[in-house]
Amino acid sequence: MKVPTATYRIQFRNGMTFDRAAVLVPYLKRLGISHLYASPVFAATSGSTHGYDIVDAGEIDPAIGGREGFDRLVKALKAEGLGLLLDIVPNHMAASLENPWWRDVIENGEKSRYARHFDIDWSRRLTLPFLRDTFETVLNAGEISVRPDPKTGKPSLACCGTFYPLAPASYAGREGEVLRSAGSAAIARLHDLQPYRLMSWREAPRDLSYRRFFEIAGLVGVRVEDGSVFDDTHRLVLELVRTGAVDGLRIDHVDGLADPGRYLERLRHEAGPDCYIVVEKILGEGERLPPGWPVSGTTGYEFIATLSNMLVDGGNLDTLRETYSRCIGRPVDMEAGLRDAKLLMVDNNFAGEVAALLKLALQIGRAEDRESTLSEAVVQAALRELLVAFPVYRTYGTQAGLPQRDREILSKVLETVRNGPDTPDARALAFLERILTGDVEQAAAGRASIFRTRFQQLTGPLMAKSVEDTLFYRHHALLALNEVGAEPLARSLSLDRFHTDMRTRLEREPDALSGTSTHDTKRGEDTRARLYAISEAPELWAGAVARWRDMNRAAITALDDGPAPEPAVEWMLYQALAGAWPVDLHPGNAEGLKALEERFAAYVEKALREAKLRTSWGNVNEAYETAVIAYARNLLSPANRVFLTDFADTLHPFIRAGLVNGITQTIVKLAAPGVPDIYQGSEGLDLSLVDPDNRREPDFEMLRKQLSERGELRSAPEMEWRSGRLKQHVVAALLHLRQEAPTLFRKGEYVALQVEGPRAEHILAFARAESDDALIVIAPRLVFSALQMEPATHRPEGWAMTEVALSEKFANRRYRDICTGKPIDVTGRVAIGEVFADHPFALLLAE
Question: Hey, what domains does the chain have and what are their CATH numbers?
Answer without folding.
Answer: 7-91+224-299 (3.20.20.80), 100-218 (3.30.1590.10), 335-467 (no CATH)
